[in-house]
Design brief:
alpha/beta; Rossmann fold; 336 residues; six-stranded mixed sheet
Length: 336
Amino acid sequence: MSIVDPKSYYKGFNIDFDSNMIAVNLIDPGENVSIYDIWADAFSEFNEVNVCLSGGIDSQFVCSVLKQLNKDLTVYIFSFIWDDCVFNSPDVVHAIRFCERFGYQYNQIEIDYKKLLESGEFLKTCMNYKANSPQIALQLKMLDYIDNKNPTFLGGDVPMMDYNFKTKQANTIGVAYLPVITQPFLNYALANERIIIKDILRVTPESHFLAYKHFLDITVKHKLVCSSEQAGAGQTQPVRTLFYTGLVSNIIPPLLKNTGFEILKTHLAKQTGIYNEYDIQYRFPLEEILKREDWYYDKQFKLLFNTELEHIKNSFENFCQNETKLKAVELYNFIL
């Protein structure tokens, strides 16, 4: 397979770092065009693909989409090690069950996360790909363990909105984090001449439009929304699950959000009696070093929405304002 421009799979948005602007690109592909049609065309140049499967619903969805597109999948499941223990073991077991139930070939790989954090290699990864999160840096490091040049997919985010029941206003979710969560994967792809697809729903303006439209349809059908007054880790999972299953994908939802970092943070807090020991030891020192770099993303980006997204947002807001049976997701977050 000839290497194409990795940027061609990140067309659903554009980030201008000089002006701190994120433009959301949506194009209505017209009637009788499905999001699977868009993906089939976007991924037509390759057949063999890799998927990093965390065990969560986002990467499960990616596996399901690629299988329906008749791609030849190799799944990679990563065990994260801390003092010789797998701290993301619930996700690893869940990922293995998913693969065995739906017939995916998979490889298991261990990464000693503690060793990575305490070495210069971790900081080098952040610097090379402009990542300012320990979690994102670990995901980038995972890509180094895949020893072929086939396109590699990871779980992304659902283009979503939440609703404020007090102000009666809708807000987009996740767009402001694209420079921090998604851009480092494009940086990795460009630096290593590989195709890395982090956000399958935003690969083109057309897929981005259909994703938002599907989100609106799911909201109208199920009358379930995320409340902006109760934002927190894992709150979006019930809505994301409905979104994915509504696109006819095989999903085994875990009981709750559990990337392993929640377990690790709890472990370190119990060891020291300090609730944010993980941040004190690793995240805060990393941020202090990276803040010296010109590219460090500690700024507020202005969001530029085109008319298609504004129309969908207005439709979502009007529905929420007028639907008498509207329900908010209610989850209590026990996680640190």
